Amino acid sequence: MGTRNPLNMGAAARALSNFGCPHLRVVNPYDVAFREARSAVGAAELLANAEEFGTVAEAVADCGLVVGTTAAGRRELQHELWRLDEGGSEILRQMKAGRVALLFGSEKVGLSNADMSHCHWLMRIPTRAEHGSMNLGQAVAICLYELARVETVSRQKHSALVEDSTNSEARAKSEDIERLTQLLFEVLRASGYVEPRGAGATAEKLRRMVRRMALNAGDAELWLGMLRQVSWKVGGQLKESHTQADRRSIKPDEHS
Amino acid sequence: MGTRNPLNMGAAARALSNFGCPHLRVVNPYDVAFREARSAVGAAELLANAEEFGTVAEAVADCGLVVGTTAAGRRELQHELWRLDEGGSEILRQMKAGRVALLFGSEKVGLSNADMSHCHWLMRIPTRAEHGSMNLGQAVAICLYELARVETVSRQKHSALVEDSTNSEARAKSEDIERLTQLLFEVLRASGYVEPRGAGATAEKLRRMVRRMALNAGDAELWLGMLRQVSWKVGGQLKESHTQADRRSIKPDEHS
Fold this sequence. Notes:
By secondary structure, chain A is of the alpha/beta class. Chain A is about 50% helix and about 10% strand. The longest helix of chain A has about 35 residues.
């Protein structure tokens, strides 16, 4: 997310390599030279293969769980906030069912509210209150360490036991969740629920709410079907002419 | 230990500050400019107060336990080697009795055998074998995180069990969840989504789905507001005449 310092990007990539995570996705890097980050000992390949995206929505489209990281300083948060050591095991559990994205903000300002609205919940590293904000590369390293640690512990615990939860159905992908959010917004707008002036704020609020629902793939499909039908009913003939406006008022990274 | 890069020293200092460790000791820094390390957001004071020593022996003189860190690559080690997550609790135990030193080597070669000889035992961060060597600042950050984590866990264990989760917002009451289910059903029926002959089955499916959402009280209220608005839009005038039928087709215990 808008990383400014190629060194930090390099450090993040190195940590990914240290802990065996092959995928780095970059949203709107400030400095396109990040691929040459020199501090990235052993992580050149990972940097070269990093995927670039224009929006958070696109970057997390195929992920079933999106977790934002925050120092949780002054700002009031609209999300559930877990301590890293609490969130780690939940992340691992979800990783068995599908892709999980860990979202890190830029060095300067962290994640914006719009960025966070794509997250299911947030996580903080338990630093001390007086100096909570961490260096990006270090924050990435600590998160990956914690996941590796929890995985080792759980492997040891369950090594004899068979995998415990084949019944936990895969989480819906973020792209479907985002589509659902947009349809819901459209239905509400056509119903007069959305105040034109507050459209951006309502969109973010909906986005957070839908993610808190933690839908599995089947339920997301069910919702999409229901909303399509309602959408047709409430705004069938209006829809075409409003499509552009709808897109504008809820496009992924709008700040309002 | 012979750190070469002021940036790394700065990153290490920042991590110390993040996790509330006030003491940085430096042995033979390669670059005396380390005190000006620019990346050390919020750690200027810590760097300014760092103590410099000429030898490891002097640096650890007043410590009761000295633990060396290593990637444990090719070298044959003469020490007991613990994984960080195993060593952490032992370190904390010793910290109650006296000072503990964590010893980090230089970026290039790590700790020499001579350096290690001052250690009681060694510790490694569980990175993957193919790329074990970590960036210095990241390694420091991970070690301190692990100590903070273990300390929190042990404090929680011993704190007489306070109530466990007042902070996770209260789940919505069943009556609100049921009202929400009914409204959703009503909206879907008015939209033509519900087939008359399959109404009972659809109602049950919806009821299960809504409960899987595990809504908290606030989100349930939000949903009720949205659905009321949509309901008014899709079936306002129809509603009165259908009330009876609606009730029948989604009453709580119907099996179809």
